[in-house]
Amino acid sequence: MKKIVFVSLFMILSFALNAQSRIVYMGMSAILPGSGEIALGKVNRGAVRATLDLLTLTAYYQTNKERSNLKDSYISYAESYAGVTHSGNERYYQYLQNYQSSDDFNQYQELMARNYYLVYNYDPDAYNQYMAANTFSSEEAWSWDNSGEWNKYKSIRKRHQQAKINNNLAFGVLIFNRAVSVLDVNFVIRNQHREQQVAGSFYLEPLGGNGLQLNCQLDF
After folding, report:
1. How many helices (H) and strands (E) does the chain have?
2. Which positions ≥6 away from 181 have C-beta within 8 Å?
3. DSSP-derived secondary structure for 66-107
4. What is the CA angle 70-76-81, rounded to 5?
5. Residue 215's pLDDT is what?
6. Which residues contact 199 (CB under 8 A, 6 or more apart)?
7. What is the pTM of this model?
8. Which residues contact 192 (CB under 8 A, 6 or more apart)?
9. Distance from C-alpha of 103 to C-alpha of 109, rounded to nearest angstrom
10. Mean pLDDT of 91-96
11. CB of 31 within 8 A of CB of 49?
């Protein structure tokens, strides 16, 4: 009975150590893609993933900095050439891109509200509430001096939006590369275990009475 317990503990410990080492290697690749492969002896494939991660990480920080600089640029430009004194959210600056002035925006909203609340459904109170909630006050007003300055603002905004897309893309590649590296480590470990099982194996053999014998077979 003691021998059976000893053998069982030995096998459980072996499986636990294998599982622990697998988690360590997978964790390494989750932090730095390719590091798990390199630690397992797959230097070339690990170096490729580590290099890809370094290049992508560089692109991520560059596009993030570009996005931040362009945001500061279009905010400053709007303050200088559209008379913006209100620090708004992303939607506010999108309206500056879509409408040459806050008066144009308010007039469009008024036209839509009149047709709906005063022509089709006569409800002056609802009309007033809608206009109060969906138009810009004098503190939020803007007006581009000319079409050239407005178009330049649009150009800066489009560059910012493209930088944002590129930044999100780089972030996605960083996550994807880590996921692939973790899966690759799992694949490498599984193949190595198969090779070890082919080269050598443990098996139990009953002895006389209630005993068991643990045997190790090595193939050369």
Report:
1. 7, 2
2. 29, 30, 33, 34, 36, 37, 49
3. HHHHHHHHHHHHHHHHS---S---HHHHHHHHH-SBHHHHHH
4. 120
5. 57
6. 218, 219
7. 0.72
8. 40
9. 10
10. 94
11. no
Both structure tokens of 105: 């925006």
Give residue limits of the domains in the chain: 2-85+173-218
What distance in Å separates the CA atoms of residue 71 and residue 182, rounded to the nearest whole number? 36
Q: Is 123 helix (H, G, I), strand (E, B) or coil?
A: coil
| CA distance linking residue 40 with residue 21, whole number of Å | 10
Residue 193: what pLDDT?
72
pLDDT digits (tens, 9 = 90+) for 177-200: 999 999 999 898 888 877 665 545
Find out whether 57 and 173 touch, Cβ atoms under 8 Å: no
> CB neighbours (10 Å) of residue 178?
18
Contact assessment for residue 146 and residue 14, using Cβ atoms and an 8 Å cutoff: no
Q: Which two tokens stand for residue 126?
A: 């609802």
Q: What angle do CA 190, 196, 202 make, to 5 degrees?
A: 115
Provide the CB-side half-sphere exposure for 174 (13 A, CA): 16
